[in-house]
Amino acid sequence: MPEGHSVHRIARQFDRNVVGHRVAASSPQGRFAEGAAVIDGRTATQVRAVGKQMFLEFDDDIWLRVHLGMYGAWDFAGEIIVDPTIASANGRMGQTNQRGTDLPPVFDAAGENSLTSIGAPRKARGHVRMSEQTRGLADDGEQWPPPIVGQVRLRLLTEATSADLRGPTACQLQTPEEMAATVASLGPDPLVDDAAAGEERFAAVVRRKPTPIGLLLMDQSVVSGIGNVYRAELLFRARLDPHTPGRDVPDEVVRGIWRDWVRLLAIGVETGQMMTMDDLDPDAYRRAMASRDDRHWVYHRAGLPCRVCGTAIVLEEMAARKLYWCPNCQR
DNA sequence: GCTTTATGGAGAT
DNA sequence: TCTCCCTAAAGCC
C-alpha cells in the first residue's frame, strides 16, 4: 500500500479540494452503492489520516473510512488545488512504479498538466493518481465529469474536482464511535500524535514484547503507517537484525527508530517518495536515484551487494511478507 | 494474451 | 500459518 506518507498526502488533497464542498457520490462499480447513496448530496466537513487509514467526515456525523490496502488508489481530476506542502519538486505526486520503488520526479514537458506548486496553492487542470501504481497524467480532454475507467468503487464529485477510489481493502461508513474505536486501535502516528508521547508509547510496547522487531514495525497497533519498504529501510538504518526480540533492543535504539520514522515520514509526505537514503553521500545518492529499481538501502535488493559492506542482501519471508536485510551490517 | 507481482490486513485454523 | 480479497501494470510467451 501506500505507506503512511501517501495517506497523509491524499488527506491533504481532500482537505484542499473536497472538504467544505457538497459532493455527488456514486459507486460506478456498484460495490459501495448503499454507502455512496448515504453520502450523496452531503457536504464533507473534515478529513483525518491516521497511519494507513483515511477518514472523511460528512454532515450528520457520518464518517467514511478508507484503507487502500496494497492496490488501492485515488485518482483526482479536474481543477485541482495543489497543496504546496505536498507538491513534489517537479509536479507529480505520490507516484511510484509497480516494482515497489519510487519513481523519480517526472517533469511534464508540456507544462500543461504540471501540478508544480511553489508558494501559494493554485489550481491546475489535470489528473493525478495518488497511490502506488504508475500512471501518467492523463489528458482528460474537456470531458466533465471524466469518463469512468476500470473498477471505480466510489466517485466523489464536487463542482470542480473528481476523486475516484479503486481497489481499496476497506471502504465503509462509520459512526463517530466506530471511527474513534478504529483510531484507538492504531499505534502512534508521528503526524497525529505528539512526537514525544508517540515515542513513549512506541518504546514502551516494543520494549516488553518478545516479538521480533521486524514484525513489530509492521504491526499497526504498535506504530502506524510503516509498511514493508519503510520497515526494511528503518531496520537497516538502525543496523538492527530484524529477528531481534523487541524487548532485547536497547532503549536508545528503539527510540532512535521512532525518531528516524518521524524524519522519514516527514520527507515522504513532502516529496511523495520513500526517500530513505538521505544520508548517502551526494555522488552515491545521484547514482542510486538514477535507477528506478534500486533506490533503497536494502528494499528489493535481494542478492545485490550491500551499499555499505558488499555482502549480498538477504531476502526471507517473515510472516508471509518479504523481508530484505544485510546479515553483516544488521546484527 | 496469460502470468506474476505488489508498499496490506482480516479471518479461519 | 494459511487463505482470501482487492486491481492494474509489468513481464513473458
TrEMBL record:
Pfam families in alphabetical order: Fapy_DNA_glyco, H2TH, zf-FPG_IleRS
Name of the protein: DNA-(apurinic or apyrimidinic site) lyase
Listed EC numbers: 4.2.99.18
NAD keyword on record: no
InterPro entries in UniProt: FPG_cat, FPG_N, H2TH_FPG, Ribosomal_uS13-like_H2TH, Znf_DNA_glyclase/AP_lyase, Znf_FPG/IleRS
Organism per entry: Microbacterium telephonicum
Named cofactor requirement(s): Zn(2+)
Any one GO molecular-function label of the UniProt entry: zinc ion binding
Domain Formamidopyrimidine-DNA glycosylase catalytic: 2-100
